[in-house]
Design brief:
This protein is an alpha+beta fold. The protein is built from six helices and nine strands. It is elongated and about 70 Å long.
Amino acid sequence: MAARSDVQIAISKESLEQISGLQLAIAAGFDEKRIDKALTAASLAAAKGMVKPVRAAAPRRTGRLRRAVWANPVMRDKPGAYVGIRGGGSRADTKGAFYRYVVTSGVRKVPYTISPNRKSGAQALYLGNGIIRNSVVRKTPIAGRPFVTEAVNKNLDTAVRLFSDALATIIQRGIPSRGKIRIPKPR
């Protein structure tokens, strides 16, 4: 099974019946759309709380993976949010890590040939120390490091606490019918 470079934090309404804030929102008469909005904002608060532990668990070779960790709300299957690694637009985009799947999932196909990019007109690869080759053949697989899922699993209690605190704060402030909900700072 391949490791993933993001972890989705999805929360169903049925599993949250124990949280007093959700019961308060249902009793206060908020409609389903407003409750979904509050659950998405609380999920985003929990995901943002996981960014720091995931960054600490990321490999520290260049720091690019650490800088690319972020949290975002889900587009489908709302309510929910995810924490993962931003891909970036290209290799030159320093805000993302285009190689995130190789690090988190690894490479199992061997032999694996690394060739120069023919579109750029490169004829050879420079490997450092004056070594130039037309291509390099990797004969051993690269093991994946699923640090995103490991860091989130270690700090799952913190995520649940952040979620419930954020949901209670949002409901106490009142869920607006229009506009975004301001995510409360964690305590």
